[in-house]
Amino acid sequence: MPPNNDPNSRETLAVHTSLLFDPIQKSFLKNVSVEVNTKTGAIARLYQRDSSHLPGPLSEHDIDLRGKVVLPGFVDSHTHIFLHSDKERLHSHQMRDESPVERTVRAVNHARAALLAGYTTYRDLGTEALGNADANLRDCINRGLTPGPRLLVATEALASNGSYEIRTENRLARGSAVGLTLPRASDPADGVWAVRAAVRRRVGEGADVIKFYADYRRRVMRFPPDTEGPGGRLLFPPDRRERNPALPLYSQEEMDAIVAEARLADVPVAAHAAETSTALMAVRAGVTTVEHIFADTSRCRDEMVAEMAGRGTIWVPTLSTAEEGFDEHKFECCKRAVKEAFDRGVRLAAGADTGVFNHGRNCREMEIMIEAGIPVEDVLVAGTYTGWHACGGDASGFRFGWWDEGNRADIVALDADPREDPKAFRKVSFVMKDGLVWKRDGRPVDAFPATQWPEEEAAESAEESGTLREPAAIPLRSALCAASTASPSAPSFGGPTPATSSIKGSRDPTPAATSDVGWETDSFDVNLG
Ligand SMILES: [Zn+2]
């Protein structure tokens, strides 16, 4: 079909590409154009051109991504938006010591960093002691108050009593006035009906996905961690693995009940598992995904891989955290295990457990998968289309991570080809989410106002003071509304409406508002903490 070149049409814009990855066909396609409906933020039409040439002159609203590698927006299937690197502060200390305000401000920065790194969707698996704040942040992003990936959240993870919580020795009796009171790190529930009630509670609180801990290192207080000074160390503790092994938190019946109840609510289920034996229980219960790498290579492994492949269970191995936490030998074992599972037909989703290290570096997970020997095309599927399935597919309320009419217009362009350049995922040149452009030519597109005064008043004061008139500024939310009713490429490419031109003005190469709010820069190593 020919492209829509109606110059009077303000409802669509075209994104022209010369190399586009299609996760369904698992191949790179040449000369595809994507028409985006600027009012709905959805893909209106996809068509392949005869050549790399454009069918006609480029309209001012259209976007030319020829020469770049174009992909659906990335999906990180395992994140914690409220956490920052463990190396900056242990995550248990973040939960214990950081104020809710600090954690929220950090999360806002994390969301920006992720979006600019090409991540248009996050499957966020637990606030870690911040209640349902992830649902609130999700809603703020969806309302256009602050930029970020589309969040699909778990709120609090389910765990059995006494199993996943902030540990302290300064607690003589739970719930008493003696000793510390700490925020809870999970929603504790035990027994078939109690776990069903907990799932209902999570759904009622706004969860998009149910997460539960199938196992955890829950005996830590039997041999408490070492501290500095006299009396700070146990004199003869058992070795590390004996000291605090990952143990099942739930019986098979409880896991079955969690999944059954989540199915009634049409919500996907993610199971944290460190051991293959408990992972196998979760897989048999029918979970959507199993999270993490497994600590052992026990006899269950063959059985588990077969069961996952047979059932279509998605494995989110979080190899990035294995790289952070394990020695080289163990990390290599993890990579081999994932490659082996892939070879035997297990579906993989790229979820980095981002938050254990800083947001914006999410692509490390895809890099490691490629290093493990998984073909680039399959890794791209794990980072896009399978991520959508991990989010529940259509049950998520959206279609993303693949190309079709009506899907969300989430588009990422790289300056390098991941088939040739192992660091290609770090070279994000362009980001569109829901039809709105957030990054162009490798630079953030700033939608923050230079002034809060109405346009006319700002113009008057500029004239009076003899300064050059800055383009009128509009609040971010208005910018999004204006852009969505005019052209979502307005921040990048300008347009005739006042709202459009004001955003265009903020595209100065070194915009003050950009540095003020701490946008991620070109540097991959920038730390937004
Ligand atoms: Zn996690």
From TrEMBL:
Pfam family, one: Amidohydro_1
Bias type Acidic residues, positions: 454-463
Region (Disordered) location: 447-468, 485-529
Molecular function as annotated in GO: hydrolase activity, acting on carbon-nitrogen (but not peptide) bonds
Residue stretches of biased makeup (Low complexity): 485-499
SUPFAM superfamilies found in the cross-reference section: Composite domain of metallo-dependent hydrolases, Metallo-dependent hydrolases
Domain Amidohydrolase-related: from-to ranges: 69-435
UniProt-listed PANTHER family: ALPHA-D-RIBOSE 1-METHYLPHOSPHONATE 5-TRIPHOSPHATE DIPHOSPHATASE (PTHR43135)
Name under which the protein is recorded: Amidohydrolase-related domain-containing protein
Source species taxonomy: Eukaryota, Fungi, Dikarya, Ascomycota, Pezizomycotina
